[in-house]
Design brief:
With about 120 residues, the chain is α+β, with helices and mostly antiparallel strands. It has one domain (about 15-115): Ribosomal protein L17 (50s Ribosomal Protein L17, Chain: A), CATH 3.90.1030. About 50% of the residues lie in helices and about 15% in strands. The protein is built from 4 helices and 3 strands, in the order αβαααββ. It has a 3-stranded antiparallel beta sheet. Helix 1 (about 15-30) crosses helix 4. The longest helix is centred in the first third of the chain and has 18 residues, at about 15-30.
Length: about 120
């Protein structure tokens, strides 16, 4: 029985799944848009949204919590300095998962996960 279990197992042992999600969180924060399978994107969304909600507080404790979840200092810095201020007035729903269709090799359903509010493009000088 799976009473009390949350999240998708992604056909991996726990430690490998955690490493995969941490890596994908870092990539999403760094590039602000990644393409992956639909199940991975939906699972990643849960974790990234919690991380952004924590980062919106902006204090030292929330930064340390984020570093314990995602041990990637450049990604955490971008989260606190660029991404969290962008969503300060938004109560939730920071990411969007868009379906792209089946992958060519094995037919796995692919999706793109990105932030809802795009970064402002710099004005050409």
């Amino acid at each position: 029985m799976r009473h009390g279990m949350k999240g998708r197992p992604l056909n991996r042992p726990t430690d490998e799944r955690k490493r995969l999600l941490r890596s994908m969180m870092g990539s999403l924060l760094r590039y602000e848009r990644i393409t992956t399978t639909e199940a991975r994107a939906k699972e990643l969304r849960r974790h990234v949204e919690k991380l952004i909600t924590t980062a919106r507080r902006g204090d030292l404790h929330s930064r340390r919590l984020a570093l314990s979840t995602l041990p990637d200092p450049p990604a955490v810095s971008k989260l606190f300095d660029v991404i969290a201020p962008r969503f300060k007035d938004r109560p939730g729903g920071y990411t969007r998962v868009t379906r792209l269709g089946p992958r060519k090799g094995d037919g796995a359903p692919m999706s793109q996960i990105e932030f809802v509010e795009p970064a402002e493009a710099e004005a050409p000088a």
